[in-house]
Amino acid sequence: MPASYLPAAARHFDRAAGISSPAGSVLSWRPSTSVDAYSGMTLWYEDFAIGDRFPYDSYTMDKAEMIEFAKKWDPRNFHTDEAFAESTLFGSVTASGINTLAVYTKLLNEKTSDWAARGAMGYEKLRFPRAVLPGDVLTGETEILETRLSKSRPGYGILRERDSLTNQNGELVLELFPTVLVERAPGWDKTDTND
Question: 77: part of which helix (H) or strand (E)?
Answer without folding.
Answer: helix 77-80
